[in-house]
């Protein structure tokens, strides 16, 4: 798959999955299962593929950037209210008020994830792209649900879903522009990937910790988590 087709696939999966909320009722339990699968896959490709790849080049700064990505996601979630892992908060005093802070935070999150996808598509970037796709599906569903529940018109909600779906490809485009003009991506690609690894570690572990109820795993959720890990294992 070429880079352009990858960007298109990332965009369409987010758009289609978010739009499905208009036609299919996706309950909280179903969303949690989708999240559990995506979180398990995300954690698995991060540990099995992305971390070994970025540490292939011995550099102590790699770990620093992983920690920076982890901390950056904590900061982003202060504004996004945890929608990256399925939290949908509608405050009564904020009904019919557009959640601009959440949209900005979510857009920054997706934009950053897209930057390391720029340039030639190798095996590491394919794994990253697959992780982003599976990660964006539940986010798009949660985002669209939140927008509709907050009283936004369908047309307005679809416009913002479209903008969210564009963020990761736009991040990749920005990376291509920086590479073409300043050759920054080649020199700092490992650090950018490490930053995204930190974000993935925070999001995936948060999802999996929240998959337990009263510190016990539900059998179906456990099966879904194992399926996500198995998919990561057979695709490395």
Structure summarized in a few sentences:
The chain starts with a helix and ends with a helix. 76% of the residues lie in helices and 0% in strands.
Q: Supply the number of helical segments.
A: 8
Shape summary: globular
Order of helices and strands: HHHHHHHH
What is the percent of helical residues?
A: over 70%
Average pLDDT over all residues? 83
Main beta-sheet strand count, sense and barrel state: none
N-end to C-end Cα span: 16 Å
Write down the Rg. 17 Å
Return the domain count: 1
> How many beta strands in the DSSP annotation?
0
Low-confidence stretches: none
| Helix-strand makeup class | mainly alpha
Strand content: under 5%
Keywords:
76% helix; globular; mainly alpha
Structure description:
- With 236 residues, the protein is mainly α.
- The protein has one domain (3-19, 27-235).
- Helices cover 76% and strands 0% of the residues.
- Helix 3 (61-80) packs across helix 7 (184-210) and helix 4 (100-114) runs parallel beside helix 6 (154-182).
- The longest helix is centred in the last third of the chain and has 29 residues, at 154-182.
- The mean pLDDT is 83.
Write the layout of secondary structure elements.
Elements (H helix, E strand, L loop, with lengths): L2 H17 L8 H27 L6 H20 L19 H15 L8 H27 L4 H29 L1 H27 L8 H17 L1
Helix pairs in contact: 1-5, 1-6, 2-5, 2-7, 2-8, 3-4, 3-7, 4-6, 5-6
